[in-house]
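sorry to bug you again but im stuck and you know this stuff better than me. below you get a single protein, a line of residues and a line of whole numbers that encode the local backbone shape. mainly i need to know what kind of three dimensional shape the backbone takes. anything you notice is useful, everything is just below:

***
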Amino acid sequence: MLRKIEIILRLGVCGTFLGHGLLAIQVNEKWIIYLNTVGFSDESAIMIMPVIGAIDILVAMIVIFKPVQPVVLYAFVWAFLTAIIRPISGEPLLEFVERTVNWAAPLALYYLLQKKNAAKD
């Protein structure tokens, strides 16, 4: 049963990071405001977004093929930060709430992997 849950969580995290990564590589102009909020200029945001996208795609591939705890923990932190930046940048709090699964799934996967790794020891 835990194996099935792990696969479902891996699919969810992979889908989130692959989708966002592809959008970032294409420089989603709606996201410039989020990077502005943390100090990036428009030009810097446009330049860094493809790098962020490439990292997101790499995370997606690692999670789907061979998840490791540090990468899954990074996925949780990054997804939480990208969700919380929405109300910080002036959007309604509901924008954060709506994205709860984006950070909760990697967090759940992290703890599941921790339990699985502890059982191996």
User: Anything to note?
Assistant: The chain has a mean pLDDT of 96. DSSP finds six helices and no strands in the chain.
